[in-house]
Write a structure and sequence with these properties.
The protein is α/β, with parallel strands linked by helices. The protein has 17 helices and eleven strands.
Length: 440
């Protein structure tokens, strides 16, 4: 069951689930267990990265997104296409035609998240000039990475960029522009065209107000409706505002390319991100000023809700970067106005999730840790996943948390069965004293 208080885009289709262990081995937060022959997702640990969707051979995991029909509920439906959306179409199709395609599908307005990224980059440059910040500053653009830090690396929360994501900035600016055109707030619907499930979750958590997002529609859904017609659409005048500085955010390294000169790094792929975060946690990368981290390999173009092969998509993005080189400058007066209106402020503050703590009481937590260590001495250490947990340590933690039993491990079960057989055999060989006397 899905907890109503915690929304997750990643869902399980139990009918398709065969109870294999592919997903539990690849989940970066060990949020999945196999119980009674079916996968079970721990809502509190899940970060909606989509790795289980990517790896499941039975397609039992999927991302819940909105349908295109929801835009009909608003007089002014605004599309916020992710930069990765541009990479889905074949080389040669202009941004103008892609955006015109969104209007063709029923949207009244379009505001590019790539333009929001360009505007945000200006504010990031301003923030990085401050002297008191904890370095490296970790980008907040990828919601899966943000959630990963909250769940698994809470000590790095102070390193997270305290600014809104490009999506949040674009949503606020798009709503402001629509209101300036005369639309009432209740008539405006803002919809994100998303390449990944983590951003569906981010959209659902946007709340009310200026930065609220009314829905998230998958890139795959939109692409399937446009792929055969987008090339024949008219080229609209000045519909596209984004340049190479914002379009590049679709791929790994694009974010740092939009910033001023500095000691930056980019890492993509959730398991590589974990490796880098471990280094940061140990204090090994303090010379790096800014860390761009993305959960999907290749960046957003590698999202599970995208269609194009990420390597082919990268070719398309690189082509667009060469084509759209004219950057529309942003006036400082505009930046000041947006700061005053809270465009760059995050609605949700970062919060450490205590889901990995063994106990709130330190003494009791230490006792449980010692119990885990003793269990690990008895477990085989094969990390085979046959018990339904990803590793032997995870099983030991589950046992201590009373979510599993020792006999869930087939090796421990076999050992206990052998002990039981020996005990039964020993009992069977015993003869009551009365019977023994009669035989004598």
């Amino acid at each position: 069951m899905i907890n109503e208080e915690i929304f997750h885009s990643v869902r399980l289709d139990e009918e398709k689930c065969k109870g294999c262990t592919h997903c539990i081995r690849h989940c970066p937060t060990e949020a999945i267990r196999v119980k009674q022959g079916k996968a079970r997702i721990d809502e509190e640990r899940c970060i909606d990265c989509g790795e289980c969707i990517r790896i499941c051979p039975n397609h039992a995991k999927y991302a819940q997104a909105d349908s295109l029909e929801v835009i009909k509920n608003f007089s002014c439906a605004i599309a916020l296409p992710a930069p990765a959306f541009y990479a889905q179409f074949k080389v040669g199709i202009s941004l103008g035609k892609m955006l015109q395609g969104l209007l063709h599908l029923g949207f009244q307005e379009v505001f590019e998240v790539a333009r929001g990224a360009e505007i945000l980059a200006e504010e990031i440059n301003r923030y990085l000039k401050k002297r008191w910040i904890a370095t490296p500053v970790i980008s907040s653009a990828c919601p899966a990475v943000v959630r990963l830090i909250e769940v698994r690396f809470p000590s790095l929360i102070e390193n997270l960029l305290p600014l809104d994501s490009p999506l949040g900035v674009a949503a606020k600016l798009a709503r402001m522009q629509a209101m300036e055109k005369g639309y009432r707030p209740e008539e405006i619907g803002v919809f994100f065209i998303t390449p990944c499930p983590a951003k569906v979750t981010e959209s659902r958590q946007s709340g009310d107000g200026l930065g609220s997002i009314d829905g998230a529609i998958s890139v795959a859904n939109i692409y399937s409706r446009l792929v055969n017609i987008v090339g024949e659409l008219e080229e609209p005048p000045s519909l596209s505002l984004a340049s190479f500085r914002g379009i590049g955010w679709a791929r790994s390294g694009g974010e740092q390319d939009s910033l001023e000169e500095g000691e930056y790094m980019a890492v993509d792929g959730i398991h590589q991100v974990i490796s880098v975060l471990e280094k940061i946690e140990m204090g090994e990368l303090r010379n790096v000023v800014y860390c761009e981290a993305q959960a999907c390999v290749g960046g957003c173009i590698g999202g599970v809700l995208a269609v194009q092969n990420p390597f082919i998509a990268k070719v398309g993005i690189n082509h667009l970067l060469k084509r759209y080189t004219e950057f529309r400058p942003i006036k400082e007066e505009e930046m000041e106005e947006w700061r005053r209106k809270g465009v760059f402020e995050r609605k949700e503050i970062y919060q450490a999730k205590e889901v990995l703590k063994l106990d709130k009481d330190f003494k009791r937590a230490l006792e449980k840790y010692q119990m885990i260590e003793k269990l690990l001495e008895r477990l085989p250490g094969l990390d085979c996943g046959a018990c339904g947990s990803p590793t032997c340590r995870a099983l030991a933690e589950d046992i201590v948390r009373e979510k599993a039993e020792e006999v869930d491990c087939p090796f421990m079960l076999q050992e206990q069965l052998r002990a039981l057989v020996r005990e039964v055999h020993a009992l069977a060989s015993k003869v009551p004293q009365t019977m023994a006397k009669k035989e004598e």
